[in-house]
Amino acid sequence: MTLFRDDGVVLRTQKLGEADRIITLLTRGHGRVRAVARGVRRTKSKFGARLEPFSHVDVQFFARGSELVGRGLPLCTQSETIAAYGSGIVTDYARYTAGTAMLETAERFTDHEGEPAVQQYLLLIGGLRTLSRGEHAPHLILDAFLLRSLAVNGYAPSFDDCARCGMPGPNRFFSVAAGGVICGDCRVPGSVVPSAEAVGLLSALLTGDWATADACEPRHVREGSGLVSAYLHWHLERGLRSLRYVEK
User: What does this protein do (predicted)?
Assistant: First the structure.
């Protein structure tokens, strides 16, 4: 019987029995973790409200063994709020849907429980912080998060040099299967010809050039979001359920 302490973001919750919940978190030191929080659905629960999606919390776990992730689910015995990002997200539909898609993405990119995913964890913290403060349009923050999640997991798309032969850009064709923009010689069936503005927007979102991203016209933003969605779908092998509700 071992106690573990870690900080993490609540990705989702599931009802268990009459008063308990299964909490799924993305933690700094242990990656994705599922734990049982007993009694948190009771009105007198001391920390139930802290274990809601979008919450950044410091959590204590109790596990029956030397490893946090084992045969059975650990118990969440204590929780302290580090940042309640949900308060700036759940009251706005655009922020809420974008944030929900971010949580789902983080969970999908951390398939194996107990394996640290520090870059994905830090990326999620930064994305939720920016979203809760309303610093940029929610759909732009989401697309930036999706592109960077792909990058930290080894699927960074190319928006300048040809993804196949390395020919210096700009290149006019785009293929999700090829890994981004490609030249005429490397063009494959199914390639599209996006506008230069949409490709420039995606490059800006990936690199953090928010001045360029914020100034982009809505039609190019929608075009870029379509490319991001297709690219993400290709690498995850199925789309995100929450993306259909995101306002564009």
Answer: Involved in DNA repair and RecF pathway recombination.
